[in-house]
Amino acid sequence: MSDTAPESVPEPVDGPGSTTESTRAEPEHEEYQEYDPAAPAPLAVPRTPTGHAEVDALLDRLADADHLATDGHVEVYEDVHRGLRDALTALDARPGPPAPPAPYGQHRS
């Protein structure tokens, strides 16, 4: 053993061109976002246009649920369901050609 003090090693200095600067893994504040599994996240489900403006508008409304918490989805889904049901009912209510007359004597016994 020796009674002499060990040689001191100089600490690395950060600066332009230093190797410690490029190996540092600190995220920048603006770009760093912590993952929150409870936060609303878009499902990004593709929607194919139907060609019927009213139906397409209702299907586009489903995207509103992407930004809501789960308990807010019900209101959007019920609204879209109601609108689609009304659109289908309107198709059934449209006047079509008149029904052909019944042949004479068909209901006689």
Description:
The chain has 109 residues and is mainly α. The chain is 32% helix and 0% strand. The chain contains 3 helices and no strands. The longest helix is centred in the last third of the chain and has 21 residues. The protein is rod-shaped and about 130 Å long. The mean pLDDT is 75.
Distance between the termini: 129 Å
Structural class: mainly alpha
- What does the main sheet amount to? none
Write the H/E string, N to C.
HHH
Radius of gyration (Å): 35 Å
| Contiguous uncertain segments of 5+ residues | none
Please count the beta strands (DSSP E, at least 2 residues each): 0
Give a brief outline of the structure:
This protein is mainly alpha-helical and 109 residues long.
List key phrases describing it.
109 residues, mainly alpha, 3 helices, 32% helix
How are the SSEs ordered, and which strands pair?
Layout: H1 19-23, H2 53-61, H3 73-93
